[in-house]
Amino acid sequence: MCGIVGFIGKEQASPVVLRALTKLEYRGYDSAGVASISDSKILLKKDVGKIAEVQGKYALDGLPGTIAIGHVRWATHGKVTVANAHPHMDCDGKIAVVHNGIIENYQELRHQLEGDHKFVSDTDTEIVCHLIETYMRMGNSLEQAVIAAIQQLVGSYALAVISVDEPNKIVAVRKSSPLVIGIGDGEYFVASDALSFLDKTNQVIFMEDDEVAVIAGDGVDIYNKKGKHVNRKPTKIEWEWDQASKNGHDYFMLKEIIEGPEAIQNAATQDKKHVMDVAMTILRAEQVVITACGSSRYAALIGRYLFSQLAGKFCDVVMASEFQYFASSIDKHTVVIAVSQSGETADVMEGVKMARDKGAKIISIVNVPGSSLARIAHKALYLNCGPEICVAATKSFIAQLVIFYLLSFAMMNKLDQGTKQLKGLSVGVNGSFDENSQKLMVLADKLHEQGNFYYIARGINFAMASEGALKLKELSYIHAEGMPAGELKHGTIALIEEGTPVVAICPNDETYHETVSNAIETKARGAFIIGVSDRDNEVYDAWIKVPEVEDIFYPLSVVLPLQLLAYYLAVRLGKDPDKPRNLAKSVTVK
Ligand code: M6R
Predict the structure, then answer these.
(1) Residue 69 Cα to ligand 1 middle (Å)
(2) Given Cys at both, which of 124, 163, 316, 339 links 292, Cβ 3.0 to 4.6 Å?
(3) Is 391 in the pocket of ligand 1 (CB under 6 A)?
(4) What is the pLDDT of residue 242?
């Protein structure tokens, strides 16, 4: 949800900011802009569209000066227009601001400020410029003005601010939106995600809520909201930017799907003592709740089956955006497992903060090192799958499943055996990649005009049906529903018509016959059945053969064709699978 960048150094800043913004585009691509300071002026270019389009029109990297800020937008307040694109400025064009987050009390503040200030956009961000302007007019320094301004803000924000009156510094501040400072050699970055500057430096300082950083050409000073200096040493991030390149593929999505087996290997490579410790914390808890959103929640639902089937440990999965409404049931005897690729999802963070305040123990399963969720948790397990750039979760979903397998095996005191089985599996899961790709491309061609898809499965694979449907919806904009196969006849079957595609996930396990029966019921109403299974059946109109594995591992066996089907349909429909409309990878607003 919006990406912000700031750079100050010795070289021209705008090309650096542009490069960094390009790596943040997964956070938003409604509009883009850059502002720099040169000759005591703020120079600003911005427009609607993806970065490449805005760059093509305005040469954002042509802005002079060694200090600049930039923004990619995922619109919240105000339509996608040039006026609403960031950076925003004050009345005199002396202050420029980029913002990620939502200022909830912006309407009241705008009414207060409107008499003395001229507003040119509909955004919540613009009030920040005018508030800072007000305090600077009173004689405050830029950082004093920013500190004074944030006292009035309600909501979430990561801000980077520059001013011609103090042209050698960027002032940055965060509350409930991610912000990381990069320490280079005589050059400094501030950004929503360290990935944006990893080609330049991997020395980072993670800012905490309510901290204000003054980033100058010769160093960084961090203050708390009372203005007291805070000492913070940089830490090193192990990720490489190279891991986030397309590696010759048309889209990040395909590359990341292909990395699935490697993701299994890497996620299964964990510190054994740490996994055992986390597993014992779960096993001993009176109550275990898993919370997550989107694909991470579907991984959690599979985790729930695994905990129950393998370790006899019952737990509940609560959608993160609904978790706050269960606050009265959370206490110090609760273990909350929060699952998130980004570790920044606002709904997850809010639920976790609530649970922590109530004394619950927090375990996080995250991918992004140093993310807010990893830092707020009592214990963290990392997915180790490297940067995932495509908005749709693919390899991170697989890695999340692996962590749930590891925890379940650890609870049975069979962690070594589980690790070995998982690593062994990784060799085979993409085995039929080429053959399935061919079949799925043909299917995509045949079915791309269908308006509705249904995905059915039972037991541990039920969440795979939901995950398959989510992938299809978000990438191709075709309506899709995933559901337990047995539930279909309780209403949804009314929607099945001649030719409606039904993806039946029916591995050759205890669910096979019943799922096939449910598929037959839809076929009787005209459905076109795509069987995702290791066992053929005459009911299938198309059979996507998956590797035969031990029953509990079928989610890892069926995941590839589900991801590929969504990918090929999106490509067939001419959609960009890496940047689906209306979405952003890191959902940092509630
Ligand atoms: O970063 P997170 O895992 O917390 O993100 C959660 C969801 O926003 C995410 O899984 C989303 O549903 C993906 N676009 C699904 O492909």
Answers:
(1) 27
(2) 339
(3) yes
(4) 66
Tokens of 266: 């890497």
Residue nearest atom 12 of ligand 1, based on CA coordinates = 294
Report the nearest-CA residue for atom 9 of ligand 1: 294
Tell me the best of 251, 290, 295 to mutate to test the pocket of ligand 1, counting ligand atoms within 8 Å of each CB and taking the most.
295
Helix axes 395-411, 554-572, angle to 10 degrees: 170
Pocket test of ligand 1: the residue of 587, 588, 590 to mutate, having most ligand atoms within 8 Å of its CB, is: 587
Both tokens of residue 327?
Answer: 């606050």
3-state secondary structure of 291: strand
**Domains of the chain and any CATH numbers:** 3-237 (3.60.20.10), 252-572 (3.40.50.10490)
- Of residues 320, 4, 364, the one with CA closest to residue 174: 4
CB-count exposure of residue 482 (10 Å: 0-12, 13-18, 19+): buried
Alpha-carbon distance values, 67 to 10, 15, 160, 181, 249 (Å): 9, 11, 12, 15, 34
pLDDT single digits (tens) 103-161? 999 999 999 999 999 999 999 999 999 999 999 999 999 999 999 999 999 999 999 99
- Atom 4 in ligand 1: residue holding the nearest Cα: 340
Interval 293-345: pLDDT, tens: 999 999 999 999 999 999 999 999 999 999 999 999 999 999 999 999 999 99
Q: In what order do the strands lie in the sheet with 479-484?
A: 479-484, 452-457, 501-505, 528-533, 542-545
Model-level pTM? 0.87
Q: Is the CB of 257 under 6 A from ligand 1?
A: no
- Average pLDDT of the residues of the chain: 95
For residues 20 and 34, is the Cβ–Cβ distance under 8 A?
no
Q: Which residues are catalytic?
A: 2, 585
> Do 10 and 187 form a contact (C-beta atoms < 8 A)?
yes
